[in-house]
Amino acid sequence: MNTADPLIVRLLLLACCLLAATACDEDIPTGPTVPLNERFVLAPGGVISLPDARASVQFVGVNGDSRCPADALCIQGGDAIVQIRLFDTGEVTPYDLHTGDSRRGSIVHRGLRLQLVELQPYPFSSRPIDPADYRATLIASR
Question: How far is it, in rounded angstroms, from Cα 22 to Cα 33?
Fold first, then answer.
């Protein structure tokens, strides 16, 4: 073994470490970039990137929309559950955000606060909502 061999081994090890570190970033889906403290709207399956937070947010869909239709009288306002995925550091974390409960309408993930501002369209008793028609308005902050 000559003196160049340890140097080559170290360089190869460094290259492997760099490749492994950048591979984690490839797992984070990317979309249009949005700065923190600015509202954004997502359709089901849509993704936005939050470069200031080194994360991405995906709107998966709506599960269980029991909001009171706009053309009805209800005792309770109801709730819709907005399913999202938060991607950061190569990890995916699913969350449910609720329209009917302000305490459950936001989450905090590693110092990043994600809040559901609005879910459209609002239901009417005369017409069902196609799942692809939903739009979630969210805001991310620190």
Answer: 19
DSSP string, 46-101: -EEEETTTTEEEEEEEEE---PPPTTS--SS----EEEEEEEETTEEEEEEEESS-
Asked if 92 and 85 touch (Cβ cutoff 8 Å), the reply is yes
Q: Which of 75, 93, 76 minimizes the C-alpha distance to 84?
A: 93
pLDDT digits (tens, 9 = 90+) for 87-114: 998 889 999 999 987 788 899 999 999 9
Q: Which domains does the chain have, with CATH numbers?
A: 28-141 (2.60.98)
pTM here is: 0.77
How sure is the predictor about 116, in pLDDT bands with cuts at 50, 70 and 90? very high
Q: How far apart are CA 132 and CA 107, in angstroms?
A: 24
What letter would DSSP give residue 126? T
The pLDDT tens digits of the residues spanning 20-63 come to 544 444 456 778 899 999 999 999 999 999 988 899 999 999 99
